[in-house]
Design goal:
This protein has 15 helices and 16 strands. With 374 residues, the protein is an alpha/beta fold.
Length: 374
């Protein structure tokens, strides 16, 4: 993987870049639609590509359980299996270390899960996680990590960081033994504690990996705390490597983080909210189930040119949700991903034009931080 910064904003740390992989290039800042189980829910790869998305995210834990990395490898890796020819990043299962806390135990060897499907025991070690992602054929690999538990306490967060660093050392050794065309990113943990984040950045930098991710946020902390820690952490990361903020977030969150120098994002928010009848629009968020749209002949977003907005009215999409037709879920998911892809293009243009701060403020007003993050 090769990453090049092509433009920097003079007033913020925002930058435009280009990340080149064996499956194509990605213009940054970029948003990655979430395809946890080798699918972005309710959408075909051709539809996702139409939105402007250039890279997808999959999940190592879930794909290891079903269908299994051996089958995926036989089917040509994730790209061939799911029919997506562009780059793919796979998360390591570190999020499940946090989200499935009741089904796992941790020690220095790795994460021991009882499968959420049938209770079968699963051991994920740093080396095994790298091996699984190799068989999946991922372009960008993430190492096994341990986010701090809630509520955040410094002692517990320090212990999680220490284990994450030990696991990263083993992950880096396993990856370097046969990197192929893939890139391994380091994950910076440390919860909301500046001293731990600084320690994590220094430790991660010592491994000299192709990129860095900021993990352990968007877990329920206040929006301003998120912004503060992202800004503090991103400022310490190497300028020459891509920076990935994991699991964030709303358009306003993303725009703020771009100003801090973040290059890559993923979040289930646009598709999850789409499936639940919410749409991001140039006029703000709307709930399509509301009666006010019953006879509205306008597109979901008059400023959007996605297939949903080119074809259907608000009244029709509302009807689909009212009668529980799956086309409604698909079309609003498609629209929301198109909105996010358009957002990233606007942000890149704004960085080049020197107007990124104004665009970020506009997005924050249009879509305030949500009380519950995804």
């Amino acid at each position: 993987m090769r990453f090049t910064v092509t433009h920097r904003d003079g007033a913020t740390r925002a930058r435009v870049g280009r990340m080149e992989t064996s499956h194509g290039a990605v213009d940054t800042p970029a948003f990655m639609p979430v395809g946890t189980r080798a699918t972005v829910k309710a959408l075909a790869p051709s539809q996702i590509e139409e939105t402007g998305a250039q890279i997808l995210l999959g999940n190592t834990y879930h794909l290891h359980l079903r269908p299994g990395e051996e089958l995926v490898a036989k089917m040509g890796g994730l790209h061939g299996f799911m029919g997506w020819s562009r780059p793919i990043l796979t998360d390591s299962g570190g999020y499940q270390v946090w989200s499935l806390a009741k089904l796992r135990k941790l020690d220095d060897e790795g994460a021991r899960f009882n499968s959420h499907i049938d209770g079968a025991p699963i051991l994920l070690t740093p080396e095994k996680v790298v091996a699984i992602q190799r068989k999946l054929g991922s372009d960008i690999l993430m190492p096994l990590d341990q986010p701090a538990d809630l509520p955040f306490e410094e002692k517990q967060a320090a212990g999680a960081l220490d284990r994450t660093t030990k696991w990263l050392a083993r992950s880096a050794t396993a990856w370097r033994s046969d990197p192929g065309d893939s890139a391994l990113f380091a994950i910076v943990q440390g919860a909301i504690f500046r001293n731990l984040r600084q320690r994590a950045v220094e430790q991660c930098a010592a491994f000299d990996l192709p990129g860095h991710a900021i993990g352990g946020l968007s877990l329920g902390e206040p929006a301003e705390t998120l912004y503060e820690i992202v800004d503090f952490t991103a400022a310490m990361l190497p300028e020459s490597k891509p920076r990935y903020l994991m699991g964030v977030g709303t358009p306003g969150d993303i725009a703020r983080a771009v100003c801090s120098g973040i290059d890559m994002f993923d979040c289930v928010l646009p598709t999850r909210l789409g499936r639940n009848g919410w749409a991001f629009t140039s006029e703000g968020m709307i709930k399509i189930r509301n009666a006010e749209w019953k006879e509205d002949a306008r597109p979901v977003d008059p400023a959007c040119r996605c297939a949903c907005c080119r074809t259907f009215s608000r009244a029709y999409i509302r009807h689909l949700f009212s009668v529980e037709e799956i086309l409604g879920l698909s079309m609003l998911s498609l629209h929301n991903l198109s909105y996010y892809a358009g957002l990233m293009a606007r942000l890149r243009d704004a960085i080049r034009a020197g107007t990124i701060r104004a665009v970020a403020d506009e997005e924050s007003r249009r879509c305030p931080p949500l009380s519950t993050r995804a």
